[in-house]
Design brief:
about 375 residues; alpha/beta; DNA polymerase, domain 1; about 40% helix
């Protein structure tokens, strides 16, 4: 069942449950609704198939009776009076439509990957993932374990992009620790020489004025820089200048999860994205489609605008554990729906072409 805003029932219910979670005063209920939302978003079959003829819902792991009531309301009516009432009574300005727009459920991802009529890259074209995290910041496993997991997926390369030191909430890595991480990466690369390459990356934080939280000489010590916003994500003011400044910064390779949105939680940055994309196309910065199911940022509709502007793209998992590497499939699904040419998707390039682009971005200057 397709909704007017591009969501199927699974995506709509997941977003509504996230909104319901946001207005709970009980921590237990808040996490319960979030867990149910994630479970529903991950389903590879439509929720309609879980509703029995007698009006009850077949068991879905981590989905309780309260969430089942929301499922039944949406399947029957296309909306949820329960969520609308709870949000209304909370006094929170939900802006739910913008926070739910163009998220794909697991069922839609599977359909997009299997649809031979869609243009764009396939999973077979995908050579490597360029955003992931290790125990050097907020990831759960070592560089070596992430590399091993990437190789098991058939990748030719990956980039370890732990958070920069300006984001302490994510245990951002200091420059001294980054040097130690690089030595660890070199050990892994010697082990896989000629078969697999780990790139030395960083996820730098975009400050409020568009500058990064790292100095130019610090950026020069890494091979791949993903610049991402982690603040000002609920601000109503236009932030076009901030994002244009970020993609104009020498050494930046990828604009990571550009809006900073999360399903049912925050709609993310408002900007004139046409201007941002046009600037990124000029500077050669790739626009990321972050495949984390809660982010899906940018989505396929916005990716169509970036495609028209002439941008490169990076399709990444933003994995913090090996089992999250599969999030890249969500990014590929968005790329297919947007009809992105494989020639403009950096994850699909041979390693030598990727390295050449990375080098050119590292020395680029607008002067």
């Amino acid at each position: 069942m397709e909704r007017h805003d591009g969501l199927d029932t699974n995506g709509l219910v997941a977003g509504l449950l996230r909104e319901l979670a946001a207005v709970q005063t009980s921590t237990q209920k808040r996490w319960g609704y979030k867990r149910a939302a994630d479970a529903i978003l991950a389903l590879d079959s439509p929720l309609e198939s879980y509703v029995r003829a007698d009006g009850t819902v077949r068991k879905i792991a981590n989905v309780g009776p309260s969430s089942e009531r929301i499922i039944l309301e949406v399947v029957r009516t296309g909306s949820s009076a329960t969520v609308a009432e709870a949000v209304g009574l909370s006094g929170v300005d939900a802006d739910g439509d913008r926070r739910r727009a163009h998220f794909l459920s697991g069922a839609q991802v599977a359909a997009a990957l299997a649809d031979d009529t869609l243009d764009g890259p396939s999973l077979d074209d995908y050579r490597g993932d360029l955003q992931m995290h290790s125990t050097w910041s907020d990831g759960t496993v070592s560089v070596a374990e992430m590399a091993r997991a990437c190789r098991s997926r058939g990748y030719e390369f990956c980039a370890i992009t732990d958070h920069s030191y300006g984001l302490p909430i994510a245990h951002g890595v200091s420059m001294a620790d980054l040097a130690r991480q690089h030595r660890e990466i070199e050990v892994v690369n010697r082990r896989y020489r000629g078969r697999f390459r780990v790139l030395k990356g960083i996820e730098a934080n975009i400050l409020g004025d568009g500058r990064l939280d790292m100095k130019p000489d610090e950026l020069a010590r890494v091979e791949l820089v993903v610049a991402s916003p982690h603040s000002g994500l609920r601000v109503e003011a236009d932030q076009t200048a901030r994002m244009v400044t970020a993609v104009s910064t020498p050494g930046v390779h990828i604009l990571g999860h550009p809006r900073g949105r999360q399903i049912g939680s925050r709609p993310g940055i408002r900007a004139n994205w046409k201007k941002v994309f046009e600037r990124a196309a000029r500077t050669g910065v790739a626009i990321e489609i972050d495949g984390d199911p809660r982010r899906q940022d940018i989505d396929y509709r916005l990716a169509e605008q970036a495609r028209a502007a002439g941008c490169f793209f990076a399709l990444d998992s933003d994995a913090h554990a090996p089992d999250e590497l599969g999030f890249a499939e969500v990014a590929v699904a968005h790329a297919r729906l947007a009809g992105l040419p494989m020639s403009r998707v950096v994850n699909c390039w041979p390693l030598d072409r990727l390295l050449e682009w990375m080098h050119l971005r590292s020395i680029w200057s607008d002067r």
